[in-house]
Design brief:
The chain is an alpha/beta fold and 472 residues long. Helix content is 22%, strand content 33%. Helix 6 packs across helix 7.
C-alpha cells in the first residue's frame, strides 16, 4: 500500500535578500515577481498531479498568518491547518512540529518538505523525482533533492554523493558549506557534487527518531509547544514559552549532516532559490537586450538590467548589468554582481531603527490593507481597503481622532452608540476616546481615506474590545 504524502510548506523568511520589495513583514515568497502568482502560490500549485498527496500543511510565523491564508484562498486550494510559530527557530523545529502534528491521529505519512520561495520551471521532472524517491523514503531513508549544478555557484551549499552508478537514489557522503569559487570549480569538475536544495522527503517517524538521537532538546520543545497549542480559526498556535526553549538550528545541521541514512536524488528541473535580485534576473523573461522590466518602466540603451517599478514611472538610460527596484518608500540601485549585499543594507537600516527594514508603506491586515500616503506633525493620512464581508475590530484610541471619507463602496460604521452606513463621497468623524468600528457589508472592496490627528499616531494606540481575528 502506498503511504500518503503530506507536503509541508515552510513559509518563514527575513525579507532581506530581495529588499526593498521584500521586508521582514512581507518576505520574498509572498512577492508576485511574475504573472504566475507569488512563489508560495506556485509552490502549492506545483503539487497538483502528485500521487496520493494530501492537502498541504503550512508552517509560518504568526505575523504572516493572514497573508498566507489570503494567498491560499486566492488560488482556490484546500489546505490543512496552519502551524503558527510564535518566533523563528529555523527549519529543524518547524519540521519537527509538522511531523508531530502529522502523527497525532496515529498516521505516519511521508513528509515532502518544501521551502515556499523556490522556482522550479519543469514540474513534470520534479514529479518524477518525487516518485523515484518515495520507495527509498518509505524504507527509512532521509531523502534530499540534489540539484544538478549548472556552474560553480558560491551561494549554495553542496552535497557529495556516492555516484550515479548505484542508481537514482545515491547515498550522501558529505554536506559542504558554501565554498569559495576555486573550491566550487573543483566540485563541478569532479561530477560528484550537487547543490543542496533544502527540499526533503522522509517518513515523519524517521525524522523524529533521528532528531531525538541528535537534537533531543529540539524534539522536547516542539512536543511541549504542540501539547499546549491553541486552535484559532484555521490556525494552530504553538505555545510561545515551550517553543522558545528549542535551539535555533537548521535541519541540515540538526539531522541531515549527522545521520547515516541520508540519501539524495538528482533533480534537473530548472530550480532556483531566488536568493538575490541577480537570481530574479536569471529566471525572468527578458527582451532582446537581456533586460527584464516590470511595472511603469521606460529604458533606453540598457543591457542585462532588471528594472522594477511598484508604482512610479522609473526610467533608465545607458545602464549595464544594473538592478533598479522602486517601492513607495525606497529605491534600490546596484550593480547586479553586488546583489548578495542587500542584507548588509538592511542590517544598517535596522541599526538606524528605520521602518523600511521591516515594513512596507502598505501594511496587510486580515480585513484588508492600509497605505500611509502622507504624514506630518500631529497628522497622518491613510488609504484603507476593506475586503467584502470583512470588519475591523471594535476599538478606541487614547491619543488620536479620525476622519473617514468613503471613496468607493459602502461602509458600515459603529461610532459610540450610533450605527450607520456611508457611501461614496460621504464622511464621518470619530472623536478621541470613542469606541468605534468599520465594516464592509458589500460585495465589492471598500476604499476610504482616513485622516488621523492627535498627539500620538502609532499603531500601538489601539484598545480592542472585540475582534473576529483573535488579535489581542
Amino acid at each position: 500500500m502506498t503511504i500518503p504524502l503530506l507536503p509541508v510548506i515552510l513559509c518563514g523568511g527575513s525579507g532581506t535578500r530581495l529588499w526593498p520589495l521584500s521586508r521582514e513583514a512581507f518576505p520574498k515568497q509572498f512577492l508576485r515577481l511574475s504573472t504566475q502568482g507569488s512563489m508560495l502560490q506556485q509552490t502549492l500549485q506545483r503539487l497538483a498531479g502528485i500521487d496520493t498527496v494530501s492537502p498541504a500543511l503550512l508552517v509560518c510565523n504568526e505575523s504572516s498568518r493572514f497573508i498566507v491564508a489570503e494567498q491560499v484562498r486566492e488560488i482556490g486550494l484546500e489546505h490543512s491547518r496552519m502551524l503558527l510559530e510564535p518566533m523563528r527557530r529555523n527549519t529543524a523545529p518547524a519540521i519537527a512540529s509538522a511531523a508531530l502534528h502529522a502523527m497525532e491521529n496515529g498516521e505516519d505519512p511521508l513528509l515532502l518538505v518544501l521551502p515556499s520561495d523556490h522556482v522550479i520551471l519543469d514540474t513534470p521532472v520534479f514529479h518524477r523525482a518525487i516518485a523515484l524517491a518515495r520507495s527509498a523514503a518509505e524504507a527509512g531513508h532521509l531523502l534530499t533533492f540534489g540539484i544538478t549544478p549548472t556552474g560553480p555557484e558560491t551561494g549554495y551549499g553542496y552535497i557529495r554523493a556516492e555516484g550515479a552508478a548505484t542508481g537514482p537514489v545515491q547515498r550522501v557522503l558529505e554536506f559542504v558549506e558554501k565554498p569559495a569559487l576555486a573550491l566550487a570549480e573543483q566540485y563541478i569538475a569532479s561530477g560528484d557534487y550537487f547543490w543542496n536544495s533544502g527540499m526533503f522527503l522522509f517518513r515523519a517517524s524517521r525524522y523524529l527518531e533521528e532528531l531525538e538521537r541528535f537534537q533531543p532538546a529540539v524534539l522536547a520543545a516542539c512536543r511541549a509547544a504542540l501539547a499546549d497549542a491553541k486552535s484559532d480559526l484555521d490556525f494552530i498556535r504553538l505555545d510561545k514559552d515551550a517553543y522558545a526553549a528549542s535551539p535555533d538550528i537548521a535541519v541540515d545541521y540538526a539531522v541531515m549532516e549527522r545521520t547515516s541514512h541520508a540519501s539524495t536524488i538528482a533533480l534537473d528541473a530548472g530550480w532556483n532559490d531566488i536568493g538575490s535580485w541577480k537570481a530574479v534576473l536569471d529566471v525572468a523573461e527578458k527582451d532582446a537586450s537581456q533586460n527584464s522590466t516590470q511595472g511603469d518602466v521606460l529604458i533606453q540603451d540598457c543591457n542585462d538590467c532588471l528594472v522594477h517599478s511598484s508604482g512610479r514611472l522609473v526610467t533608465a538610460i545607458g545602464m549595464r548589468n544594473t538592478v533598479i527596484v522602486e517601492t513607495a518608500d525606497a529605491v534600490l540601485v546596484m550593480d547586479a554582481d553586488q546583489a548578495q549585499h542587500t542584507k548588509t543594507v538592511v542590517a544598517q537600516l535596522i541599526t538606524k531603527n528605520r521602518a523600511e527594514a521591516t515594513m512596507h508603506r502598505e501594511v496587510f491586515r486580515p480585513w484588508g490593507s492600509y497605505d500611509s500616503i502622507g504624514n506630518g506633525e500631529r497628522f497622518q493620512v491613510k488609504r484603507i481597503t476593506v475586503k467584502p464581508g470583512a470588519k475591523l475590530s471594535l476599538q478606541m484610541h487614547h491619543h488620536r481622532a479620525e476622519h473617514w471619507i468613503v471613496v468607493s463602496g459602502t461602509a458600515q460604521i459603529t461610532n459610540g452608540d450610533r450605527e450607520y452606513l456611508l457611501t461614496e463621497n460621504q464622511s464621518t468623524y470619530i472623536p478621541l476616546g470613542v469606541v468605534h468600528s468599520l465594516a464592509n457589508p458589500g460585495k465589492l472592496p471598500l476604499e476610504l481615506i482616513e485622516i488621523q490627528s492627535g498627539s500620538y499616531l502609532g499603531e500601538d494606540d489601539i484598545v480592542r474590545f472585540e475582534d473576529r481575528y483573535g488579535r489581542a
